């Protein structure tokens, strides 16, 4: 029997004033799957991510993470369940070192929740927290930057720092919002490598990406959105040959 999907997006709709940003979108992310969400500007991808990660409430529809409904939860509650995300615009705190920025990923997980003691985050010594941060940095091969400030590290490394911050909380599902945007070829290769290693750890991945080659290289399945609707879903090879997708996304 097929396993329960890790994420189930079911008939989600969301309007802003008169604009229907999402119109009845449904799809699943299977366990240990890398799924990409693509579509032209304004298709509704970020809005959907914001709904999945608890920043927006949908007007209708449901989001399920295994057997839990997410649509009424707040972002920190999602982190506790095992879902973390990165943002399109890198969000590092300029006055903190790279290691401290990564430790923020643990704070969010432990600080605001009544279950924090059960999770053991606050009861751990700072040393134990730092060990987790160090492990996460080593995993992403950025340990040499631990004591640097964000202004002192290259753009591609900042992206990996964001990934490390999302990974330090040991998520089951990670949401990546345009992880390859603005990266050069070498940085993109490093990112791809990092994504595969995250996946090898058993983490499921949902990512928004504009770079179709990147999507074809790393995803098992692709959902295509246009004007708030899902217009196609399938293997990368199927998607890139789909007439509706070529028309909407690749510009004919
Ligand atoms: N907070 C908001 N208030 C009003 N309108 C919004 C808001 N967020 C998104 N929209 C609108 O919803 C629609 C979908 O936007 P969204 O940012 O989700 O698309 P996208 O696919 O992520 O685009 P991009 O690839 O440019 O990031 C757009 O018409 C956008 O202007």
Give your account of this protein's structure.
One of its GO terms (molecular function) is L-isoleucine transmembrane transporter activity. Its EC number is 3.6.3.17. Keywords: ATP-binding, Hydrolase, Nucleotide-binding, Transport. It holds the Pfam family ABC_tran. The protein folds into two domains: 1-82 and 171-251, P-loop containing nucleotide triphosphate hydrolases (Rossmann fold), CATH 3.40.50.300; 92-170, no CATH class. Helices cover 37% and strands 23% of the residues. The chain contains ten helices and ten strands. Helix 7 (185-200) links the parallel strand 7 and strand 8. The protein starts with 6 loop residues before the first strand and ends with a helix. Residues 110-122 have low confidence and may be disordered. The site of adenosine-5'-triphosphate has 11 residues, from strand 2 and helix 1.
């Amino acid at each position: 029997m097929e396993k329960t999907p890790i994420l189930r997006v079911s008939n989600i709709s969301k309007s802003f004033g008169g604009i229907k940003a999402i119109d009845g979108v449904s799809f699943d992310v299977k366990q240990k799957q890398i799924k990409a969400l693509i579509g032209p500007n304004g298709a509704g991808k970020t809005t959907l991510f914001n709904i999945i990660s608890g920043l927006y409430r949908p007007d209708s529809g449901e989001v399920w993470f295994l057997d839990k409904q997410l649509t009424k939860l707040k972002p920190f509650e999602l982190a506790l369940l095992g879902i973390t995300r990165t943002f399109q615009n890198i969000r590092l705190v300029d006055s903190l070192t790279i290691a401290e920025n990564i430790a923020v990923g643990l704070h969010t997980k432990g600080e605001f929740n009544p279950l924090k003691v059960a999770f053991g985050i606050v009861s751990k010594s700072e040393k134990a927290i730092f060990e987790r941060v160090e492990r996460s940095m080593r995993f992403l091969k950025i340990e040499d930057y631990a004591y640097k400030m964000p202004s002192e590290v290259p753009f591609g490394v900042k992206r990996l720092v964001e990934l490390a911050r999302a990974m330090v909380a040991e998520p089951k599902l990670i949401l990546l919002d345009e992880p390859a945007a603005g990266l050069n070829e070498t940085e993109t290769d490093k990112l791809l490598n990092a994504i595969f290693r995250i996946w090898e750890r058993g983490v499921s991945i949902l990512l928004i990406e504009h770079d179709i080659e990147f999507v074809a290289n790393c995803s098992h399945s692709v959902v295509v959105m246009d004007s708030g609707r899902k217009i196609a879903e399938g293997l990368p090879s199927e998607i890139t040959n789909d007439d509706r997708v070529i028309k909407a996304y690749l510009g004919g």
